[in-house]
Amino acid sequence: MKDTCFVLLAGGLGERLGYSGIKIAISLESITNQSYLEYYISYIKAFESKLNTSIPLVIMVSGDTSDLTHEFL
Q1: Are the beta carbons of 37 and 44 closer than 8 angstroms?
Q2: Structural domain total, the chain
Q3: Is 45 within the bounds of a domain?
């Protein structure tokens, strides 16, 4: 597992979906308002817990999403 990481491709804006921000900030559901990024992080944490290890998360961004992603984090 030492050579393992999760890579999230986050280079797109949500304009096509009618959302003015980055796609990873869009809410998955209306009850909790959990974003896609929060969902991915909770999945990774559960995976880490099951394997009793730490797995890095790498977020690949584009020129369009870099600043917005850093602000969101």
Answers
A1: no
A2: 1
A3: yes
pLDDT at 52: 93
CA atoms of 4 and 26, how far apart (whole Å): 27
Instruction: Report the pLDDT value the prediction gives residue 54, as an integer from 0 to 100.
Output: 93
DSSP string, 5-64: -EEEEE--BSGGGT-SSBGGGSBS-TTT--BHHHHHHHHHHHHHHHHTS---EEEEE-TT
Q: What is the pLDDT of residue 48?
A: 93
Asked if the structure places residue 1 within a domain, the reply is no
| pTM for this model (two decimals) | 0.75
Question: Quick check: is 22 in a domain?
Answer: yes
Tell me the residue range of the domain where 60 lies.
6-72
7 pLDDT above the threshold of 80: yes
